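Input record (one chain):
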Amino acid sequence: MKTPQFVQLHQPGDGRLASEAAQGLLARPAAVSPKFFYDALGSRLFDAITELPSYYLTRTEAAVLAGHGAAMGEQVRRWLGQAPVMVELGAGSCEKASRLFPLLTPGAYVAVDISVDHLRGALACLQREHPQMDLLGLGMDFSAGFTLPPELPGLGDGPRLVFYPGSSLGNFAPDAALQLLRDMRAAAQGGALLIGLDLVKPAAVLEAAYDDELGVTAAFNLNLLHHLNHLLGSNFRVPDWRHVAFFNAEASRIEMHLEARTDLVVCWPGGQRAFQAGERMHTENSYKWTLPALEALLRGAGFGEQLTWCDDNGWFAVCLARA
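The corresponding structure, as predicted from the sequence alone:
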């Protein structure tokens, strides 16, 4: 049996994340990247969110992949040949990719996440299930750009299938999303992209998914304050803030914010920021697309032929695009 390999390119403790977070707090209006949601507790809270009845995204995407995975696999083999290298961005538990292995038949799998520590257990389990497959865990923060180093083991020189599920592209502003897609096209080396994207639907459905009645999403958003305290040495108090989520129809995106309940001053070594009651800190965007907008986005990034599958309600799309 082969052994998974791990390469850590991003160094979480090098001060760059703290500097980025501080710059976001000092911006007008304050805004911090959604990547700061994902400390250990934040990751567990997000897993709980995916189980909520109102959070349709995960189960709807899973149903599309299960219902049409065989057709996707057939098309991947037609374009890329047998046993392509599969590269998953934001792999996390690697569960989505592993369910597709029997249909896509990859010869090697590269799991990309911000820290390889999150990948070790998942890849160890995958290796037992697929003892002869080359598995690589790559620790990388791709939020500011995605390029695969050519010297990585197991990548090879042939076409690759880049996999980006979960509509995570929606966290990026339009210009940044377009650039990330161009980066993924380059990384595919003439292969293909398999991407899941959430579609526009009634605002009530969207808002319930990001502001559930149990308050799990609120806890997920508020836990960001704990993470910032750990990262910056700041003095955020959770009771001073409340969760706000709404659909901005003009921008076609869900917005999540934290709103100050009272006038306050947040301090950290080397900086501080005053907030007035009602002032908000922007913590996440989640863009939603129509099918024509999705097709135009991919073509704008340089992708060619596209095949798209949706659920019966037309709520979620999984698109295979040729690089």
